[in-house]
Design brief:
The protein folds into 3 domains: 134 residues, no CATH class; 95 residues, no CATH class; 153 residues, SH3 type barrels. Helices cover 37% and strands 17% of the residues. It is built from 14 helices and 11 strands. α1 packs across α2, α2 packs antiparallel against α3 and α3 runs antiparallel to α4.
Length: 440
């Protein structure tokens, strides 16, 4: 609900600024937003008590991915110029400033220019809040946020000094079943667990259970990953075990962390003629247009490709994993595309090539009178037609990152409904100044 003073046309008091109708639209958008599998899932019934308390990573994903897509559609694409619409666009600008500051502060790379950009967006957010809600009283956290740019310059990216790893360990300890019989040194136990001095003090059953469970889990992980000591039968299940215990499987930080891992050679593979299939005639023409030397009749059709720890798949396998930003060959701009096929072709006896068959989104038709209410360079948000171009060939090296998308239908005054899609980049490691993704 929103709160208004008597006789006011817009929200002028503190409280929730989303109307019931807007919340229904946001819930509908959450169900239609496409994301890759590594992005932390967000409850579709956001705001209800059924899903419990959101975790920090869910708040981060919601704030820099799902909410920007939905709020830009709900607030930013309004054609009406009434006071309520203008107030919504002002709220959108303030919200985008906060989201931009969060992205800059949580980036895996930093520099004085990034720190300065963060401070600019944070000041813009606070000034906007004070203008929209004059009665609002800032909290100590707001004052702290204005000093964060100093820490970025002095200590580097926040991932090297924030406390989320400790909170994760605390969460793991809390999930261990116990009988809640606390000993005399429970508080000291948590402090000394890391250096294994728990045996020096008198402990209760709760501390003993947590200590033994935590140690057993750590020993089991170490044993399974030791290839020389682990039995072959258990070693064969290592991939299954990794999927069960790896905390990064569905976590937005995986994209940040994997960026600094050594790049894998996606073309290094063994050609297996029995797995090769005949290339359709239309796809052979596309290959020849891409490279006249690719006169091949068969290829291995892959369903997925893993690059820097991220899984890229064809659209039939998982649509979210097939949504990628590709670099244009002639310019430094990027565009969204859908991976239709992944081919492995043998051009000579010792040469293999891995190629991506994609369809890029078309630009918005000139007859459609719609545009984004801003450039949003930090978020990397663009607006495209939901229709796709013909098949094209790209290399895995042309991949930039995944993107999240929200399809919707737009209808201007006196116009027919046009299917469009809002795209937001999921690249969280960049070197600034920023590069916008243009839709032309």
């Amino acid at each position: 609900m929103e709160y208004r003073d008597e006789g006011a046309d817009t929200s002028t008091r503190l409280g929730q600024v989303l109307t019931d109708e807007e919340m229904v639209e946001i819930w509908s958008d959450l169900a239609r937003i496409s994301t890759p599998t590594w992005v932390t899932p967000i409850p579709l019934d956001l705001g209800s008590s059924s899903h419990g308390k959101l975790k920090a990573d869910q708040w981060r994903t919601l704030g820099i991915t799902h909410l920007p897509l939905s709020l830009i559609r709900v607030w930013g694409l309004r054609e009406s110029r009434d006071p309520q619409s203008q107030k919504c666009k002002e709220l959108l600008d303030v919200t985008i400033s906060l989201m931009s500051a969060v992205i800059l502060a949580s980036s895996r790379v930093t520099s004085p220019s990034i720190a300065a950009a963060y401070l600019t967006h944070m000041k813009s957010y606070m000034e906007g809040i004070k203008k929209l809600f004059p009665q609002y009283r800032f909290r100590p956290n707001h004052h702290m946020a204005l000093h964060l740019h100093e820490y970025l310059c002095r200590f580097g990216p926040v991932h090297s000094w924030w406390t989320f790893p400790f909170e994760r360990i605390i969460g793991m300890l809390q999930r261990i079943p116990t009988n809640f019989k606390i000993g005399r040194s429970c508080a000291l136990f948590l402090c000394l667990l890391a250096i294994q001095l728990i045996h020096v003090f008198h402990s209760g059953q709760l501390e003993q259970t947590i200590s033994e469970s935590f140690t057993q889990s750590a020993n089991l992980r170490a044993f399974i990953y030791k290839t020389k000591q682990c039995p072959p039968a258990i070693l064969a299940c290592q991939s299954i075990f990794r999927r069960l215990v790896d905390p990064r499987v569905r976590n937005t930080l995986i994209s940040d962390m994997a960026t600094f891992e050594p790049a894998a050679d996606v073309q290094a593979a063994v050609w297996n003629p029995r797995n090769a299939a005949k290339i359709p005639l239309n796809l052979r023409h596309v290959l020849l247009q891409y490279d006249s030397s690719l006169e091949v009749e068969k290829a291995q059709f892959l369903k997925q490709l893993i690059i820097l720890g991220l899984r890229y798949t064809i659209s039939e396998k998982h649509f979210g994993n097939s949504c990628v930003l590709l670099k244009q060959r002639s310019t430094s701009n990027y565009f969204p595309a859908i991976i239709v096929s992944i081919l492995k072709v043998q051009t000579s006896f010792s040469t293999l090539q891995t190629l991506l068959v994609v369809r890029r989104y078309k630009s918005i038709p000139p007859s459609t009178s719609i545009s984004l209410p801003g450039t949003f360079p930090v978020l990397g948000v663009t607006l495209w037609s939901s229709e796709c171009n013909d098949l094209e060939i790209f290399r895995p090296e042309d991949l930039s990152c995944h993107f999240a998308s929200l399809p919707f239908k737009y209808q201007g005054h006196g116009e027919a409904k046009v299917p469009l899609v809002i795209v937001i980049s999921l690249a969280r490691v960049r070197i600034y100044p920023f590069q916008c993704y243009i839709s032309s």
